[in-house]
Amino acid sequence: MGRVTRRAFAVAALSTLAMTPGTAAAPWPSGGPARAAGTEMRGMWLASVNNRDWPSRPGLSAERQRAELRALLDAAVRRRLTTVMFQVRPTADALWPSPYEPWSQYLTGTQGRDPGWDPLGEAVTEAHARGLQLHAWFNPYRVALHDDPSRLAASHPARRHPDWVVPYAGQLYYNPGLPEVREFVQRAMLDAVRRYPVDGVHFDDYFYPYPVAGQVFDDAAAHRRHGAGFASKADWRRDNIDRLVRETAAAVRRIRPDARFGISPFGVWRNASADPRGSATRAGVQTYDDLYADTRTWVREGWVDYVVPQLYWSIGHPAADYAVLLPWWAEVARGSRTRLYVGEALYRAGDATQGAAWRDPDELSRHLTLAKTYPRVRGHVFFASKEVADDPAGAMARVVADHYPQPAEPPL
């Protein structure tokens, strides 16, 4: 079913659903389906790691998990969104029956235990029935949020290949500097792309881990073995991540040509104090220097179909001003084939610990108003689905009222 036809089908189906007792409220706040307002990225991240958004806790019945997932997809439709980034590989595990990695512990509470259903398969079907696109969201290198390999499932590849794993700051990571690791993580992720008609493949901001003071990511042996010809270890690390990005992009195009490949990096490539091409920011983390992710090059060279920089700061923030970073990214995207969407910190709205700006429920709407003045910004993605559904501060309702008066078609 084509995308436009699928949206029309979903409007009719959900209008019927809204009149059925015991189902979700009508998805169109105005009281009926309106004409679609063109194509636009209106996305949300649906995170499974640590049961952040879904399922609400491990060990729920399959039917309860299904119901929670459907409710979040219904919330996306009510908010007139078009796309869901569904986290299906949170910690070198799987939310589908993978032949390469164990079932995720966030489903049953025990890594490797079959939950009795196929979350990714059903998520694709349910999203498409609602006219939503579904992008499969993968974390390439994170193995565990602890540093004890014995707690992993006995069948886990990290236990069969302990030489692939680097403990760092209380967690376990696959070593990006090993070609065999890069080949394996791509094979594991691309299994889902082969099996399911996903509309996109999505990476988040984790490549090499975020730096922790006093901790060393011990990849010295891999660097000695594979780092010849690079001026520095940092250059070699960046090349490792560049290879992952280029190779994954090529594989997605080969396996599922209609799918899009995108990445949502931390919002600061480099501060201008480190590089005149950088942004006028004073961020404590720079993706180029700290995560070894040359996000600017990925966009300029068109290696990714879309980029969603996480611009999780308020307008006027002293170290990383949204109003400074937005035009910087728009300029980076100028002349590139890569589409620019903006990652928005819905989760910060109403949180008193995030500063005065975020206590104002209009802050997020002001972001979208500013973004409209930059034509290269083609949409927004909100973190995350729990806040899209619950909207404790009313910020999402303001966004919908101010910017999404009509439903839209997903990006083509």
Topology, element by element:
Elements: H1 3-18, E1 41-46, H2 62-78, E2 83-89, H3 105-108, H4 119-129, E3 133-138, E4 142-144, H5 157-160, E5 165-168, E6 171-174, H6 179-195, E7 200-203, H7 220-226, H8 233-255, E8 260-263, H9 287-291, H10 295-300, E9 306-307, H11 322-333, E10 339-344, H12 356-359, H13 363-371, E11 377-382, H14 385-390, H15 395-403
Parallel strand pairs: 1-2, 1-11, 2-3, 3-7, 7-8, 8-9, 9-10, 10-11
Antiparallel strand pairs: 4-6, 5-6
Helix pairs in contact: 2-4, 6-8, 13-15
Give the tags.
disordered N terminus, 412 residues, alpha/beta, TIM Barrel, single chain, 13% strand, three-stranded antiparallel beta sheet, eight-stranded parallel beta barrel, 36% helix
Written overview of the protein:
The protein is an alpha/beta fold and 412 residues long. It has one domain (34-141, 176-403): TIM Barrel (Alpha-Beta Barrel), CATH 3.20.20.80. Helices cover 36% and strands 13% of the residues. The longest helix has 23 residues, at 233-255. Residues 1-35 have low confidence and may be disordered.
How many whole angstroms does the radius of gyration measure?
Answer: 21 Å
Number of structural domains: 1
| Biggest pleated sheet | 8 strands, parallel, barrel
Question: What are the segments in which pLDDT stays under 50 over at least 5 consecutive residues?
Answer: 1-35
In oligomeric terms, what are we looking at?
Answer: single chain
Q: What is the beta-strand fraction?
A: 5-15%
Assign the CATH topology.
TIM Barrel
* Number of distinct helices: 15
Classified by CATH, the class is: Alpha Beta
